[in-house]
Design brief:
Blueprint (H helix, E strand, L loop, with lengths): L21 H8 L3 E5 L3 H9 L4 E4 L3 H4 L11 H14 L4 E5 L9 H15 L3 E3 L6 H10 L4 E6 L18 H17 L3 E5 L3 H10 L4 E4 L7 E4 L1 H4 L17 H18 L13 H16 L1
Parallel strand pairs: 1-2, 1-8, 2-3, 3-4, 4-5, 5-6, 6-7, 7-8
Helix pairs in contact: 2-4, 4-5, 5-6, 7-8
The structure holds 3-methyl-2-oxobutanoic acid (KIV).
C-alpha cells in the first residue's frame, strides 16, 4: 500500500503517475490503452497492481454500486466520496472522475466549479463529461481552467432517454457523420481523449484514424486506441442486464455468494470462530477479572 502523497492535475504529478501526454504517444506508437472503472480503494489498488493505464470512477456507480436503475441519480457528493477512495488506492494510473448528471449541464461556470471540487477534494487527475454540441464550450472552459477533459459520445447513458434508450448510436450514415464531426470538434475544443460507446466498429475506426487524441471504446470494436469495461461487468459481479459488448473475465458473484453462505452456516453451527481467531488473556488476569465480577455481582 502506498503512503505517498498524491496531487491532482493542478500540481506536480505524484512520482510514478502516468503522464497525461503519454496517452497521445501511446496512440502514436500503436500501443493499446487499458481503462477500467473502479469505485473504492481496494479496486483502485488492484487495478493499479494489474497495470491498467486509466481508472474511470464512472457514474455507472449509480447502478453497479448504489443499486439505481440508471446513472442519472448519482450525486456530486457520492461521486466525490468514491473518487477519493479510488485515488487513495491507485498510484500510477490516471484517475478520471465522471461528472454526474446535473453537475455540468447548467453552465460553463457550473462545470468548472464541479470539476474543481473533484480535483481539489478527491485528487482526480481529470474529469469526463458526456456529449458534444453545447459541451464544446464546457470543454474549453474546463481546459482553460487547467482541468483535463475526457469526452464521451455515442451512447451517452445520462441522456439515454433522448437517444431512444440504451441502444447503439451512429448506425445510419447521417448519424455516423454527426458522430465523426462531434469527435473532431471535441478534439479541437481541447479534450485529451474520447470514449466511444456502442458505436459501429467501422465508424469508431474512421473516427480513431482521424483523431490525434486516443479513443477509448466500449462496444465500439477493436480499432479504438483503448478499451474500457465496468469493474462489476468484467468480474461477473453485476447481476442486472449485461450489454453485448461486455466480456466477463471472472464470475465472482457465485463465488462470493458461496463464501457468505459458508460463513453464515459456520456461525450458526459454531464452527466459526475457532481458537486461532480469538484473543487470550493470562490465567492471572482472568482470575482477577472473575474476582472483580464476583464482587460486582455480590453488591
Ligand atoms: O460510467 C461509466 O462507467 C462509463 C463507462 C461505461 C465509459 O461512462
Amino acid at each position: 500500500m502506498t503512503t505517498r502523497p498524491r496531487q491532482g492535475s493542478a500540481g506536480t504529478p505524484a512520482s510514478g503517475k502516468l503522464p497525461l501526454p503519454e496517452l497521445a504517444e501511446m496512440k502514436q506508437r500503436g500501443e493499446r490503452i487499458v481503462m477500467i472503472t473502479a469505485y473504492d480503494a481496494p479496486s483502485g489498488r488492484i487495478a493499479d497492481a494489474a497495470g491498467v493505464d486509466l481508472i474511470l470512477v464512472g457514474d455507472s456507480a449509480a447502478m453497479v454500486v448504489l443499486g439505481h436503475d440508471s446513472t442519472v441519480p448519482a450525486t456530486v457528493d457520492e461521486m466525490l466520496m468514491l473518487t477519493r477512495a479510488v485515488t487513495r488506492g491507485a498510484d500510477r494510473p490516471l484517475v478520471i472522475a465522471d461528472l454526474p448528471f446535473g453537475s455540468y449541464q447548467v453552465s460553463d461556470e457550473q462545470a468548472v466549479e464541479t470539476a474543481i471540487r473533484f480535483v481539489k477534494e478527491a485528487s482526480a487527475d481529470a474529469i469526463k463529461l458526456e456529449g458534444a454540441g453545447v459541451m464544446l464550450s464546457r470543454v474549453r472552459a474546463l481546459t482553460g481552467a487547467g482541468i483535463p477533459v475526457m469526452a464521451h459520445v455515442g451512447l451517452t447513458p445520462q441522456t439515454a432517454t433522448m437517444l431512444g434508450g440504451f441502444k447503439a448510436q451512429g448506425r445510419s450514415a447521417a448519424k455516423a457523420v454527426q458522430l465523426y464531426d462531434d469527435a473532431l470538434a471535441l478534439q479541437a475544443a481541447g479534450c485529451f481523449s474520447i470514449v466511444l460507446e456502442a458505436v459501429p466498429s467501422p465508424v469508431a475506426a474512421r473516427i480513431t484514424e482521424a483523431l490525434d487524441i486516443p479513443t477509448i471504446g466500449i462496444g465500439a470494436g477493436p480499432d479504438c486506441d483503448g478499451q474500457v469495461l465496468v469493474w462489476h461487468d468484467l468480474l461477473g459481479l453485476y447481476e442486472g442486464h449485461a450489454p453485448r459488448f461486455v466480456k466477463q473475465y471472472a464470475e465472482l458473484a457465485p463465488t462470493i455468494g458461496a463464501a457468505v453462505e459458508r460463513y453464515a452456516s459456520e456461525v450458526r453451527n459454531g464452527a466459526f470462530p475457532e481458537e486461532k481467531h480469538t484473543y487470550s488473556m493470562t490465567d492471572k488476569e482472568l482470575a482477577v477479572f472473575e474476582e472483580a465480577l464476583a464482587e460486582v455481582r455480590a453488591n
